[in-house]
Amino acid sequence: MSSDEFGLLLDRLTSAVDATLAMERIMSTLRQPIQLPGAQVELQPHIGIVVSIGGDETAEDLLRNGAVAMHRARLSEAGYALFDPEMHADAIRRIEVESELRTAIEESQFILHYQPTIDLRTGRLTGVEALVRWQHPRRGLVPPMEFVPLAEESGLIVPIGQWTIKEACRQVRLWQQEIPAGEPIALNVNLSARQLRHPNIVRDIADALDDTGLLPSRLVLEITESVLMVDTAATLNRLYELKSLGVRLAIDDFGTGYSSFAYLRRFPVDIIKIDKSFVDGVATEPTSSALVDAMIRIGKTLRLETVAEGVERVEQADRLRNLNCDIGQGYLFSRPLPSDAITGMLRERAANGPSRANAA
Ligand code: C2E
Ligand code: CA
Ligand code: CA
Fold it and tell me: Which atom of ligand 1 approaches the CA of 192 most closely?
C-alpha cells in the first residue's frame, strides 16, 4: 500500500469514526426524556441515512433508499443505519417473498407434515406435532425456517396459522374416525408470538375445535419460551383465555430462553419440551446431561409432562428414560411425515401394538 493509499484509508476511517460519534450524539440527544405537564416522555428515534455518492440519483431514489435504511434501523440496536445497495436487494427479495406468500395463502400452497411423539417407557405413540411446509410452484417443498420468520414479521402467519390449526384438527379427527382401534393421540400445533397477540386467536381455535369435532383436551398449543417473556401481563391473560377452552399448553424450545422457576409457576403450562441443543449431548456430555436432569426434575416438581426434542440416537433415548423423561420426539422414532404415511403408521400400530416402533 502506498503512502497516498494509506492516507486515503486513514481519512476514510477517521471520517467513519467521526460519523459514528456524531450519530451517537444525535441519538442520545433525541433520546433525552422530555418533561411535559404531568408526564415525562421518551422518544425512540430511528434514523435511516443515505449518502449521494455519484450525485446521479433522483430525489425519489434517495427517499426510497432512506426508507430502506430506516427499516433496517428499526431492527438494529443502534437505532440508525446507513444505506447500502445490499439492503435494497434484500428489501426487494422480502417484498417478493411476501407477495408470493399472499398468493400461497390464496391458492392453498401449504401442507402439513406430522411428527410422532413417543412414550419413552411404553413406546406408545402419544401424539403428533403438525409442522407446516410450503409447496412452492418453482422451489418445491420449502421448510418453515425459510418463510415462517417473514410470515411473522408481515403478519401473514395469522392466516397461515388459522389454516394450520383447522387443517391439523380436521386430520386428527379423521384419524380418530378412520382408525377407531388406534391409540388416542394428542395434536401439537405451534403458535407464534404474532398469533398469540392477535385478538381473534381464542375464537379461531374454539371454531377449529367446534367445526372439526376434535376434543379440546386433545389439542396442545406450543409456545416458545421467548414469547412468554415479553409483555407478561397481557400474555398471561391470553394464556388463561386459551386454557379456558380446555386445551393444554407446552413451552417449546425449553432451556433456550430465560424463564425462571417463578415464571414457570405463574404460567398455566402443562408440558415442557426440552430443546434439541440440550438433548444432543445428553448421553455424551456431563454438562448437557446435568442440565437435562435438572429440567426434568423441575418439570416433575411442577407436575408438568416432559418431552425431549430432537432425539436421534438410541443412547440418548436410553439416557432420557433413565432420567425419567416422559416423552421423546426425534428422527430416531420418526421424521415429520405426510399425513398418509402417518395413517399407515397408525393402522399398523392399531393392528400390531406399539412394541415394534419402540424398538427403534
Ligand atoms: P419446532 O417447533 O422446534 O419443531 C421441531 C423442528 O425440529 C422441526 O423442524 C423438526 O423437523 C425438527 N426435528 C425434529 N426431530 C429432529 C431430530 O431428531 N433432528 C433434527 N435435526 N431435527 C429434528 P421444521 O419442521 O423444519 O420446523 C422448524 C420450526 O418452524 C419449528 O420448530 C417451528 O418453530 C416452526 N414451525 C413449523 N411449523 C409451524 C407452524 O405451523 N406455525 C408456526 N408458527 N411455526 C411453525
Ligand atoms: Ca414445536
Ligand atoms: Ca422446539
Answer: 44
